[in-house]
């Protein structure tokens, strides 16, 4: 049987996502093209690689074996490119990095920019995921580095502190909740809510509401934290965003930021890897940079 690198990347994307639709999108393919490619892979080997069901797909025993070898092959290729990159002008390396919403929007732009400016031959494949998915993906080898919260079990992953993320409710000034020093998330379920159009944070908030038997009364979804602050300031409703974003929003919108008292709302973010010896030279350098305390520059 013959599988090219595109086949292997598609297969791992589907396994990682647990869905052919989402895996196809990650691989940059249409659903029909991805489905046909997966069927061709199974036909070439005369083996079933995926169990298909209502809730998505999962690898068969043969699929698990293929995923294991695919991860090894792609990791070795990445290591080869990283090592040759030190000698071959123009050869680029790519580091796969997964992070939750707070890390992507609030902390990484500055921390990542400093490193990338001094590593012009390295590209970053950055994807936003929920912390649980990040732990699973890094453990499985789908990504070299992850940034996740301490709300999930990281298992055997190697962790280093990255940042502290505190979630706050943003409400219009003069709102009945604005006088409170702290709020329980449950107190927000009856209020008109301004959500985030997409992202791991909104998925997390929806799940938290469901866990306590309720749901958020979404009036509108915005694409940015700035948009949520502006809508809240105009009296549209309330939102939940990182404290760092709320501080920026208070400069231009008449809002009050109230810390959430729930334990899960104060999250210690960590940068994680499977093991340092497995990292490519580029990934190792980036991990060491991200694992340093904020504000300290590498020499």
CA-based shape:
globular
Structural class: alpha/beta
- Named at the architecture level, the CATH assignment of the domain at 164-266 is 3-Layer(aba) Sandwich
Question: What fold name stands as the CATH topology of the domain at 164-266?
Answer: D-Maltodextrin-Binding Protein, domain 2
Assigned CATH class of the domain at 164-266 = Alpha Beta
* Global mean pLDDT: 89
Seen as an oligomer or otherwise, the chain set is single chain
Q: How much β-strand is present in the residues?
A: 15-25%
Overall helicity: 40-55%
Total helix count?
10
**Structural Rg:** 21 Å
Question: In whole angstroms, how far apart are the ends?
Answer: 48 Å
Sketch the major β-sheet: 7 strands, mixed
Low-confidence segments, ≥5 residues, pLDDT <50?
none
Order of secondary-structure elements: HHHEEHEHEHEEEHEHEHEEH
CATH H level of the domain at 164-266: which superfamily? Periplasmic binding protein-like II
The number of distinct β-strands equals 11
GO molecular function: DNA binding; DNA-binding transcription factor activity
Family: Belongs to the LysR transcriptional regulatory family.
Protein name: HTH-type transcriptional regulator CysL
Keywords: DNA-binding, Transcription, Transcription regulation
How does this structure look, described?
It is a single chain. The chain is 42% helix and 23% strand. It is of the alpha/beta class. Among the domains are: 1-74, Arc Repressor Mutant, subunit A; 164-266, Periplasmic binding protein-like II (D-Maltodextrin-Binding Protein, domain 2, 3-Layer(aba) Sandwich). α1 (5-17) packs across α2, α1 (5-17) packs across α4 (61-85) and α2 (20-27) crosses α3 (31-45). The radius of gyration is 21 Å and the shape is globular. The model has no long low-confidence stretch (mean pLDDT 89).
């Amino acid at each position: 049987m013959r599988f090219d690198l595109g086949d292997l990347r598609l297969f791992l994307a589907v396994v990682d996502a647990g869905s052919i639709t989402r895996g196809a999108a990650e691989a940059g393919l249409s659903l029909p093209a991805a489905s046909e490619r997966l069927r061709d892979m199974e036909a070439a080997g005369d083996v079933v690689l995926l169990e298909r069901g209502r809730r998505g797909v999962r690898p068969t025993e043969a699929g698990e074996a293929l995923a294991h070898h695919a991860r090894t092959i792609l990791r070795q290729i990445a290591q080869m490119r990283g090592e040759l990159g030190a000698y071959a002008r123009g050869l680029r390396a790519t580091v796969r990095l997964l992070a939750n919403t707070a890390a992507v929007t609030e902390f990484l732009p500055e921390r990542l920019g400093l490193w990338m400016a001094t590593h012009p031959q390295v590209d970053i494949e950055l994807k936003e995921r929920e912390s649980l998915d990040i732990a699973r993906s890094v453990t499985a080898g789908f990504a070299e580095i992850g940034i996740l919260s301490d709300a999930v079990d990281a298992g055997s992953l190697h962790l280093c502190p990255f940042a502290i993320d505190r979630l706050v409710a943003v409400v219009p000034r003069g709102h009945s909740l604005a006088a409170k020093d702290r709020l329980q998330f449950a107190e927000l379920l009856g209020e008109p809510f301004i959500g985030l159009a997409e992202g791991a944070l909104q998925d997390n908030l929806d799940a938290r509401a469901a866990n306590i038997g309720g749901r958020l009364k979404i009036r509108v979804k915005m694409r940015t934290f700035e948009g949520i602050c502006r809508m809240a300031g105009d009296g549209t409703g309330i939102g939940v965003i990182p404290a760092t974003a709320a501080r920026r929003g208070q400069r231009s919108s008449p809002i009050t930021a109230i810390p959430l008292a729930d334990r899960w709302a104060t999250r210690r973010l960590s940068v994680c890897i499977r093991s340092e010896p497995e990292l490519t030279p580029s990934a190792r350098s980036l991990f060491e940079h991200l694992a340093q305390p904020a504000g300290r520059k590498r020499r």
